[in-house]
Amino acid sequence: MSITLTDQDKLTLRTAAYGAVSLMSAADAAGSPHKAATEGSIALSSATGLVGHVLAAKTRDIKLDGKSVAAIADHVLPALTAAMSLLKQQAPAEADNFRGTVIVAIEAAARTHQGQPSPALAEMARKITGALDAV
Q1: Residue whose C-alpha is closest to residue 41's, from 84, 83, 102, 82
Q2: pTM
């Protein structure tokens, strides 16, 4: 079965995945936000399958320029749910791949701390996971 994603579908996937990493970085503002962003982005670049191809595309179409974490979350959390919904409809295996990729990325972003992630990071990870599982 061939899977065809529109440009808008691909933008939704990229916004969701890279947005999740941005949210983790923003939640780590008092710690190492650059390390969180770097580790999360590296994890996204290791994605395989259709998801890997979409995330590897060199585009400038992702807009994550909210003035607060809440503004970014208002954009990213629905994108995570929408991405899961469209992948579950078109390619259930790719939905699992996308979810796993995002989970690895947020775990990598949270791993930059010695020991446990901060409460803010843990809560953001919970919100991201909730958005992935809302479908």
Answers
A1: 102
A2: 0.92
